[in-house]
């Protein structure tokens, strides 16, 4: 699972987010637990070929990220990434559930679990207003 906390340039989510991914049952791609977030090249994403991509720009609500996606043209080769081909690119409400340390990161892990496995481990469902398919980038 690749978690991007910024889109242009792409920045992977670091610090506690890779650990959240592991706890939810995923494998963090291009990020390490406890390490700072880092700018990466689009080529690195293409080479990693993640099976799931989470877009959670810091400070953006889901609607803001979806709007931003419409103005950014994905790099050549984007449509060949496994996550894109299989419709596994999601936008999350990062500011509330991922970007700030606090009790709501538990709900962030629930979102990741639901995305990965179709079920969350804390309740039957999550708030769909906080997660959306990044449709402009998977068409």
Radius of gyration: 14 Å
Order of helices and strands: EEHEHEHHEHHE
| The CATH homology group name | Nitrogenase molybdenum iron protein domain
Report the structural category: alpha/beta
Q: How many beta-strand elements?
A: 6
Tally of individual helices: 6
The CATH class name reads: Alpha Beta
Could you say what the CATH topology is called? Answer: Rossmann fold
Helix content: 25-40%
Largest sheet: 6 strands, mixed
Strand order of the largest sheet: 3-2-1-4-5-6
Work out the count of structural domains: 1
Q: Which term fits the overall shape?
A: globular
Q: State the CATH architecture.
A: 3-Layer(aba) Sandwich
For this structure, the quaternary state is: single chain
Low-confidence stretches: none
N→C terminal distance: 20 Å
Measured by DSSP, the beta-strand proportion falls in: 15-25%
Mean pLDDT: 84
Offer a concise description of the structure.
With 139 residues, this protein is of the alpha/beta class. Helices cover 32% and strands 15% of the residues.
Features:
alpha/beta, 32% helix
């Amino acid at each position: 699972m690749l978690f991007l906390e910024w889109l242009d340039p792409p920045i992977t989510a670091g610090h506690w987010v890779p650990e959240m991914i592991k706890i939810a049952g995923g494998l963090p791609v291009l990020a390490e637990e406890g390490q700072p977030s880092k700018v990466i090249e689009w080529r690195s994403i293409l080479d990693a070929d993640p099976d799931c991509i989470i877009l959670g720009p810091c400070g953006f609500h889901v609607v803001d990220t979806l709007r931003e996606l419409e103005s950014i043209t994905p790099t050549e080769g984007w449509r060949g990434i496994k996550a894109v081909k299989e419709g596994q690119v999601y936008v999350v409400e990062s500011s509330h559930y991922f970007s700030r340390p606090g009790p709501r990161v538990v709900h962030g892990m629930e979102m990741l679990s639901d995305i990965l496995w179709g079920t969350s481990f804390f309740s039957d469902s999550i708030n769909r207003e906080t997660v959306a398919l990044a449709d402009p980038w998977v068409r």
